[in-house]
Amino acid sequence: MNIILITVDSLNKHYLKAYGEQTGIDVQTPNLDRFAAKSAIFDRHYSGSLPCMPARRELYTGIQEFLWRSWGPVEPFDMPIARAANQQGYVTQFITDQFHFFHGYSHGYYDDYQGFELIRGHELDAWKTAPLGDEDQSFLQKIHYNPKLPEPFTRGAYAKNVKNFKEEEEFFAPRVFQTAEQWLEDNHTHEKFMLVIDSFDVHEPFHNPDSIAGMYTDEDIHDPDLPIWAHSGRTDEGNGKLSERQLAFIRSQYAAKITLVDKWLGKVFNKLDEHQLWDDTMVIVTSDHGHYLGERNLMGKPSYNNYNVLANIPLIVWHPQGAHNGSRVSSLTSTVDLYATMMVTLGGEVRHSEHSRSLLPILTGQASIIRDWAIYGYFGRALNITDGRHTYHVPPDENIPLYNYSTMYINPVAFFFPGYVPDKVEAGQFLPYTNATVWKYEVKVPSEFAIFTKGKYAHELYDLEYDPWQENNLLDSSPELHTRMKELLGSALSQLQAPSEAFTRAGLVPK
Length: 511
What we know:
- By secondary structure, the protein is α/β, with parallel strands linked by helices.
- 26% of the residues lie in helices and 17% in strands.
- The strands form 4 sheets. The chain has an 8-stranded mixed beta sheet with strand order 5-4-6-1-8-11-2-12, with helices on both faces. Strands 3-13-14-15-19 form a 5-stranded mixed beta sheet.
- Helix 1 (30-38) packs across helix 8 (244-274) and helix 6 packs parallel to helix 8 (244-274).
């Protein structure tokens, strides 16, 4: 069976008709709508390791990594899904505009594909170098350009990269999905193939061609006072404060970008129609995480608990023999499970089933449950767990040291910057899922990054059945539930054989 995995970065499920579209904006997604109508829609699918590259390690190697390390590369002991597919006789292709794959400290994710293509220039990609002029000042204001920040965080790179973008076809999502469409046209006759399309859109900046940008707003889309790239953090105070007008405009541009992605994603679906590939192709559409757009007065992916806006993400799967095609699935699933799903489909071996659990028993109607819990979060920050109905959030005790485990000296905090050689390092077999020797070293926060890592984490407990937007904290009013969820968190960490500091930083005793 062929496999197509499509990841749409930062896609909020509550902006999609397939999930009830609870935003007040009638976001037009006809292609996703028709795909969802024939496929299995998973309602309780959760992110695992956040943000971008930790999520990709889960997707492509099946390791739930945030308990052991930060943003980093494929490890030598990993079995990437592309390598496994090659061994099973698949033709493999990777298409993306996610520039993080080509950073020095997040390498190894595309190496095993027989073909890969990178669409250059998104977000902070260091690509174009031609200087900006007076004519660019309005756009620089819209993306909150700040020359006082260290590169690449000034955001000037994006302005340089897209300076000459005019037509819709020049933007990133159109280029990604046109490339995928052409690849299918040229390669659909292979006996079996695996195509991975990793679209960085709908990630910020929410920059759209004029043909799309005005769909959900009556504002002047070129007004420099209306941002398309807000600061991550709070929207009601501080440096990231936004007016209601600005917030509404940002939401309109996010919605427009979803429509842009949908329009060009439709060309991939059309190619499957044209060559009658649906009968022998599994198609997975998902995201890595959501994106706050004013919910809880938050923007982006700030240092708060991972609430459902960020963590409960879309997953829609077409399987030719699917028992749930055209219906909804309430089973609890996690990002890391997609690795095992693909691995079993292509005939490979799942090495770490305690991490990644195949969805195929659910998809084919042989089982309704593959996991009782899903754990998720950022490395070293709040621990979050759900049993499908409740979510439990535990802030870290930052007085207890945090360690990074890897075969590389990566930068666990400022991961866009070069790694550093730690003052004190241990070498040993510290990871429960490999016998490989790795480095263990304490995470040190550079003073210039302290402001970005200082979190507003809280001890919280929610019942999603009665409180889907997580507004009523039950921690003090439901002691029995609190005890049960705390025990569930401890059990999950024990099953994963998490490092001892993961327990102690969460106020738990290692078992």
